[in-house]
Design goal:
Helix 1 packs across helix 4, helix 2 crosses helix 3 and helix 3 packs antiparallel against helix 4. This protein is mainly α.
Length: about 140
């Protein structure tokens, strides 16, 4: 439960960045796809680094694990599509942009936690490196 709370706190920071940038880009007239496509990479990179170091990783490690980062960014692309679909669905039902974006963010955090915990930052039984970990010798 502590890991989920830490994950949620880090994700809340990323969601705040997404919300601020997303609303700003929507206000500039960009489509939802474009607005979220610009906002998500900024927040995803910061969130990845914090999850690697704080939520799932080693606070003292300097290795941000590029292989795992690639896996994380690929999952972020899938979560981006999920987020936009939820956002557009809610807008289609008349929800205001900010409310629709907040609900889409919360829904995508739940999906993101599951993917991060089970795939990206998973530790194999018996120890060792997680799937998606590529380190040079």
């Amino acid at each position: 439960m502590t890991r989920f709370l830490t994950f949620s706190a880090v994700s809340a920071l990323g969601a705040a960045i997404d919300l601020i940038l997303g609303v700003t880009f929507l206000g500039l007239g960009l489509s939802s796809w474009a607005a979220l496509a610009l906002a998500m990479p900024v927040s995803a990179t910061l969130v990845y680094a914090l999850h690697q170091k704080i939520t799932f990783g080693d606070l003292h490690s300097r290795d941000l694990n590029r292989g795992r980062l690639v896996t994380f960014l690929a999952s972020t692309a899938a979560i981006y599509v999920f987020r936009v679909v939820v956002f557009e669905f809610l807008r289609g039902w008349g929800a205001p942009d900010v409310a629709a974006l907040c609900v889409a963010l919360v829904a995508s955090v739940a999906v993101n936690y599951t993917v991060s915990r089970v795939v990206i930052f998973a530790r194999p039984k018996g120890g060792g490196q997680s799937w998606g970990t590529f380190r040079r010798n």
